[in-house]
Write a structure and sequence with these properties.
This protein is mainly β and about 100 residues long. It has one helix at about 30-40, and strands spanning about 5-10, 15-25, 45-55, 60-65. The protein has a four-stranded antiparallel β-sheet. The protein starts with a strand and ends in a 35-residue tail after the last strand.
């Protein structure tokens, strides 16, 4: 596909940026891997915001990758679902007219 230019911004838990690196890579995940491997002091980084740098139309947001300081947070945590109740049981009784039982 060819090499592309990406901007990788390190962000902390409050969403504030802590430096941006411009990286030439095949895709966004390779750019994040390169920044993780080469940039020192990433203790406060919780996410990496990745932008694709384009000459004519500027930069475009690609996605977020979790960093070493990311603990998972509470997003998406739900109470476990309860099982569905069993359907009411069906029983058939034949009533014969005139018979007493």
């Amino acid at each position: 596909m060819g090499m592309r230019t990406f901007e990788v911004t390190q962000r902390d838990a409050r969403g504030q940026g802590h430096g941006t690196c411009r990286v030439v890579a095949d895709d966004a995940s390779d750019a994040v891997a390169w920044v993780r491997a080469t940039v020192p002091d990433q203790a406060d980084t919780t996410v990496y915001a990745v932008y694709r740098h384009r000459r004519l139309r500027g930069r475009r947001f690609v996605g977020l990758w979790s960093g070493p300081g990311y603990d998972g947070g509470q997003a998406g945590v739900r109470e476990p679902r309860r099982p569905r109740p069993t359907p009411p049981s069906l029983s058939i009784q034949l009533e014969v007219p005139g018979a007493q039982g």
